[in-house]
Each structure stands twice: as C-alpha cells, then as structure tokens.
C-alpha cells in the first residue's frame, strides 16, 4: 500500500487531505509537529511526504533539511506546501522535490503525489 506522511498544523487541511488520499487507497499518517520528523519517518516509512512551511516546532525548511541530510531517508520525495508567495525559493532552500501553493487544487496535489509515488 502506498504511504503518505503529512506534516501540517492546520486540522481542516489534514482532515480533507487524509480523507481524499485514503479514499484513493493510500495509507495516511499525519503530524502536527516537525521536530520529530526522523522518528515519524522511521516508524511509518512513507513513500511521499507533504510538508507545510509553518509547522511547529522547527518549521518546514529545517524539517525537510533534516530528512534530506539523513542517509536512510534522503530518497523520500518531499512536496512542500505553503501559502507563501516565495514558495519556490522556500522549497529550494529546504531541498524539497516539489511544491504546491495553498490554497491548492486537490487534483494538482493528487497528481503530484501520484507522480512522486511512481518515480
């Protein structure tokens, strides 16, 4: 089963994304904090990660960097999600593999996740 790990502190977004991806056959795990990213990824072993920029306690850029600097997990695609205007720059700074601007079109998000699941 395809596994998606979502880091976001917005409960309504977490709920919507979880429902949509679960209906499409994904196993979804959510986290409202990012400082424990290595532990969460170790336990869940996701195929793709969605990362919000404004997530406690260390923020999306730092959390993504921790992951990308980890030998075992740097191959896991991270899709950066934020309402910031400079999303492209933030995604690059974090070494994310892709990005989606909030508010996002769910179809775009599904396509990006599916693309990275299969790459």
Automatic annotation (TrEMBL):
Keywords assigned by UniProt, alphabetized: Phosphoprotein
Keyword Translocase: no
Modified residues (4-aspartylphosphate): 52
Keyword Transport attached: no
InterPro entries in the record: Bact_response_regulator, CheY-like_superfamily, Sig_transdc_resp-reg_receiver
SUPFAM superfamilies reported for this sequence: CheY-like
Membrane-spanning residues: none
Source superkingdom: Bacteria
GO biological process: phosphorelay signal transduction system
Residue stretches making up the Response regulatory domain: 3-117
UniProt-recorded name of the protein: Response regulator receiver domain-containing protein
Organism field: Epilithonimonas xixisoli
